[in-house]
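Re: the multi-chain job from yesterday

Posting the exact lines I submitted so nobody has to dig through the queue logs.
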Amino acid sequence: MSFFAFLGTLEIGLVYGLVALGVYLTFRVLDFPDLTVDGSFPMGAAVAATAIVAGINPWIATLLAIFAGSLCGLVTAFLAIRCGILHLLASILTMIAAFSINIRIMGRPNLALLGEDTILTPFELLAMDIGIDSGIVRLGIVLLLVIFSGWFITRLLASDFGLGLRATGVNSRMVSAQGGNTALYTYFGLALSNGLVGFSGALFAQTNSFADVTSGVGTIVVGLAAVILGQTLIPGRKIWVAVVAVILGSVLYRLAVAFALSSGMFGMQASDLNLITALLVAAALIAPKMKTTIQRKKKQAIAAKKLA
Amino acid sequence: MIELNDIRVTFNEGTILENQALRGVSLAVPEKQFVTVIGSNGAGKSTLLGAVSGETPMVGGQVLIDDIDVTHKSVHERAQYAARVFQDPLAGTCASLTIEENMALAYKRGSRRSWKMALSSQRRKLFQERISILGLGLEDRLSDNIGLLSGGQRQAVSLVMASLADSKLLLLDEHTAALDPRMAAFVLALTKKVVEEFDLTVMMVTHSMKDALAHGDRTVMLHQGEIVLDVQGQERKQMDVKQLLEMFSKVRGEELADDSLLLS
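And the result, structure tokens for all chains:
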């Protein structure tokens, strides 16, 4: 793999690290299976791209994208809490609706951002002036943004409010008995999670210079792969460990996939990506269980020998 | 402190399974009184507590806590007025969170949860102090998962949790029912200690007539959704289980046929 490709893989790994954070918040923390991300990711991209093309400041465009993502999360929460629709189903409904809405936002199925100013543009220009490779600077900026997001989530979950949110995903009846508004926490959690994913979509659009309505398909799979891979490799109870784990999981996932594709092993093609992902996630889920089983069998064998 | 006016609770109204759990129950509990509520299975004891806490939907009646009408307030809105300990140790705590995290949750009952850190060194010290009164050595294990503790230990911690935030009311829903006799006695003794120290008004639902008479100042007996006995003061002090049963027979004209209630 070339250095350029390596940088690109790291960059996309970090961008999707925000998706991993969002998925961690809903699947792991809130215990709310949320498929909305397949809709909020391209919505973030669509809103950011449309706004930038319309001449709006790219930072404001990114903020609008975060807002749009949050809105998707709120819709899902509304359907699940107020309307009593099963959470998984509610998120699917939002995800499906978002597809059409994204086309409406962009006015077309995809939008190119070539030549437009993005949030990265000033840094890229600065890099060119100084003489550093602009790819490294871009990676650095994305890394900073991801680190800031990770810090924000860690700090939030360590607060009283965040503790209430975490507890809602563990035992909502107890939270109510302790005066916590579980509905509020769920709304907030879903909005935050999808806001992060919208942010990721906006970054994706600006780093790849396009927004496409189909770019959301499979986002949840990528997010889950990152979370599962990350938490299997870096287990830990603390929040910051989990946050770092899922972001790293996203990067490692991309690296593993890029490596598998570039090495041409077994004649793999880009279309085999889904199969590779499935195998990787399955391995990450099965490996810890196999480890415990092997350890247990060893102990049983030793104990049996002692008795004999 | 608590005023229950004509509480009516019906489950599955209008269907074959319709069950009138509470048929117009009225009860006034003054401040600092310790009421024990007994009754056979299905009598409506937990339902009554549920009516106070807000978990049971009522079809009629009014609930006042501290002269405030809470009839239309949700569970979490009412939580500021009353601390609760559940029957199931698993239901009252978050198993995958640590002891101190559970305590931090209970500490903020009744106040707004905001951006402040949940576990500051100041709070940890307070939690350590409060939990050391249990004498179970848990003050060194505050960062262990609460799920690692036994049922009795969890109930003991739940009691400490209930006293962390200011409230004048304590609702206990058969909180020793899931414990072995030794642990149950420990938790009941602890209950007495906590109630005395924080001057609380208490409603304790219990399945044991013996415990109901041995603790508190007043005993109320529910039967088929109505209050059939209400004893306090001198009369109650001199009562034992046998006399309570005789009183029941006199009032209802029938024998009480619930073995577990009589024998526990």
